[in-house]
Each structure stands twice: as C-alpha cells, then as structure tokens.
C-alpha cells in the first residue's frame, strides 16, 4: 500500500500478514479465496467462462446479493471461479502497489464494505461445499473445514477481545464488571 500516516502504516502491516501468512496458507492447503483487485492477474479463458461471466454480470436483487456482489467485487469473482473449478493461486514473488485510505473515515467505509462481503462469500462457498469439493480438485473437505473455523473465529474474535478487555479492567481496577 502507498500513502502516508498511521492508517497506511496499519494497512501495510495488515497486507503483510494477510499475504505472507493467510494467502500463503490458503495457497498451500487448497487455493486462495480472494485475490484482491489491485494484486490480481487472471487467465482470460477463466474469466470468459459463461457461468462465471453471466453470474458476475448479474444485477443485485436481494439484500444478500448486494452485499456479496457489489461490496467486494474481487472476492465475488474469486468465489465464482472456485465454484466453477478454477484455482486461485498466490505468488509471493509478484509485486504490486495500491493506494491505501489515509484517513479513518475512508478506511472505515472500505472495511464496512469488505467485511460483510467477505462473510457473505465465504458463507456462499461453505453452503455450496459439496459442489465445490466435487468440481474443484484444489479444495478438499479439510480446506472447507479450515474456512469454516476461520469464519467462526472472525465472527467471535472481536466479541471475545472485548470481553477480555472488560474482564481485565474489572480485575485490574477492582471495578464491577457492569461498570467496566
């Protein structure tokens, strides 16, 4: 990510963790769930697949469609490719740059789009796991299990951290839990 300031520094760290650890892990045990738009290169025959192109071009009609299709287009495209049997890979040797949000409001709006889209697309992949495992040789039932654990921990993680902070404040300062 390019730019300056605290928000960009945070995003540089986040991109490093996300790409060096998470994407590399996904690549090794199955395939990558999302190739971010600014870091992507796709084969034209995969993009020209009728089922991918037709569904990717469809209009959002339901609220869940809006979240899944329009809030994170790169993730939606990768979900469609995986459901059709294509493999999305990670290449550590590649190099790309993108401009990151420098202010909190822009960053918050970006994440307000990305997080629900991520959950919706992973949920769609998990819901269709029998088909995905049968048509995509890179995805096993263990990979689906890994993604399910990651989804559950992503949902429970923030609440767990909040409860731990409340407990720590309560114990450290001898304050009632409700007050803390």
Automatic annotation (TrEMBL):
Q: What is its main location?
A: membrane
Which GO biological process annotations does it have? chitin biosynthetic process
Q: Does the keyword Transmembrane helix apply?
A: yes
Give the record's keywords alphabetically.
Glycosyltransferase, Membrane, Transferase, Transmembrane, Transmembrane helix
Q: Which domain of life is it from?
A: Eukaryota
Q: Which InterPro entries match?
A: Chitin_synth (IPR004835), Nucleotide-diphossugar_trans (IPR029044)
A single GO molecular function term of this UniProt record: chitin synthase activity
Query: Where does the sequence pass through the membrane?
Result: 148-173
Q: What is its EC number?
A: 2.4.1.16
Protein localization: Membrane
- Look up and give the membrane topology term: Multi-pass membrane protein
Q: Which GO terms describe its cellular component?
A: cell periphery; membrane
For this entry, the protein name equals chitin synthase
Q: Which organism is it from?
A: Pristionchus fissidentatus
């Amino acid at each position: 990510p390019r730019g300056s300031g605290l928000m960009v520094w945070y995003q540089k760290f986040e991109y490093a963790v996300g790409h060096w650890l998470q994407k590399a892990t996904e690549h090794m045990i199955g395939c990558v769930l999302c190739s971010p738009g600014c870091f992507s290169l796709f084969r034209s025959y995969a993009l020209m697949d009728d089922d991918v192109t037709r569904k990717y071009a469809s209009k959002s009609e339901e609220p869940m469609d809006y979240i899944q299709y329009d809030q994170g287009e790169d993730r939606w495209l990768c979900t469609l490719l995986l459901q059709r049997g294509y493999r999305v890979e990670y290449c550590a040797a590649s190099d790309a740059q993108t401009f990151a949000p420098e202010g909190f409001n822009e960053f918050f709006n970006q994440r307000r789009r990305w997080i629900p889209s991520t959950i919706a697309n992973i949920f769609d992949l998990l819901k269709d796991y029998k088909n995905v495992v049968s048509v995509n040789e890179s995805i096993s039932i263990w990979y689906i299990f890994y993604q399910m654990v990651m989804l559950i921990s992503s949902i429970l993680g923030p609440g767990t951290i909040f409860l731990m902070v409340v407990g720590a404040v309560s114990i450290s300062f001898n304050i009632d839990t409700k007050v803390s």
